[in-house]
TrEMBL record:
Keywords: Cell membrane, Membrane, Transmembrane, Transmembrane helix, Transport. GO terms for cellular component: plasma membrane. Its main location: membrane. This is Sugar ABC transporter permease. It is a multi-pass membrane protein. The chain crosses the membrane at residues 16-36, 78-99, 111-135, 155-180, 201-219, 267-285. The keyword Cell membrane applies. GO terms for biological process: transmembrane transport. Belongs to the binding-protein-dependent transport system permease family. CDD domains: TM_PBP2. It holds the Pfam family BPD_transp_1.
């Protein structure tokens, strides 16, 4: 009898882990094992077939950190993150404030604000490629300007960032609209009675209450933007003159062009470390800037 009780207690204790076991197996096989293998191989000379040849320690890391193309890729990635993450979140928040009150026409502008979320990045890239055409493109023609959007090294990364901002804003809008509409009406009414300006309500009510949602959006978009590669591959292939090459695009080209695992492995680990540091900075901000009800 006592043994049966112990067995039941043991099964009850293990039940949550058994439910999670399939996920652990999948993560272990397709995420953790490849990651550990990449770390291991980053300290070795690896041939084009992925076979380990010779241990070199940190020489691989020193080599790629002295590679001007990789250093530029790091700068491009950081600049891309700084351009896209804050702007898309601010725009999503402002659009959510505009759509806060439900009206008869709400369904139309809410849908139009959220449409970018349903667009594939490849399709969006092709649309913007047509808009960016210098001679016949809509943007240059409408504004009467002559900008080489994808061939000017000074402008190309900004042009790609604009596309990412457009894509991310719709996603941010959906989440922020729900957060903004969850703000209690009595708080807004009390603020109105006390004569609070719209800016004061924004700073003292809307931002603190919606900060958990904003934190989630920023953290997830930081990781995604650090790993961005698709738009670059479609539109510029890292050009012109490496002006749009990101870290992950550098890794991709090392593997696809020459099968250079010796450079690709440490570059991928450096990308992970940078993403980890940026994410930790975000969690450090959470302690002071995020208010949970």
């Amino acid at each position: 009898m006592l043994k049966k009780k112990k067995d039941k207690k043991f099964l009850k204790t293990m039940e949550p882990y058994l439910w999670l076991l399939p996920a652990f197996i999948l993560f272990g096989a397709f995420t953790f094992y490849p990651f550990i293998e990449t770390i291991f191989k980053s300290f070795f000379i690896v041939d084009s077939f992925g076979n380990v040849n010779r241990f070199v320690g940190l020489e691989n890391y020193m080599y790629i950190l002295s590679d001007e193309k990789f250093v530029q890729a790091i700068f491009n990635t950081v600049w891309f993150v700084l351009l896209t993450v804050p702007i898309s979140k601010v725009l999503g928040f402002l659009l959510a404030l505009l759509a806060n009150k439900k009206r008869k026409t709400s369904i139309f502008y809410e849908t139009s604000f959220a449409i970018p979320m349903a667009m594939a990045s490849s399709v969006t890239a092709m649309i913007f490629q047509l808009l960016y055409v210098p001679s016949l493109g809509f943007i240059n023609g409408f504004f009467g300007i002559d900008v080489q959007w994808l061939t000017d090294p000074k402008v190309a990364l900004i042009a790609i960032a604009i596309i990412q901002i457009w894509l991310s804003t719709g996603y941010a809008f959906i989440f922020m609209l729900s957060a903004v509409r969850s703000v209690p009406d009595d708080l807004i009414e009390s603020a109105d009675l006390e004569g609070a300006t719209p800016f004061r309500k924004l700073i003292s009510i809307y931002l603190p209450i919606t900060s958990p949602t904003m934190f989630y959006l920023i953290i997830t978009d930081l990781a995604y933007s650090m790993m961005m590669m698709g738009l670059v591959n479609i539109l510029t292939d890292g050009g012109p003159f490496g002006a749009t090459q990101t870290i992950m695009q550098y890794v991709y080209k090392q593997l696809s062009a020459t099968g250079n695992y010796t450079n690709a492995n440490p570059a991928a680990i450096i990308a992970f470390v940078m993403t980890f540091i940026v994410t930790m900075l975000g969690f450090a901000w959470e302690k002071k800037g995020v208010h949970y009800q």
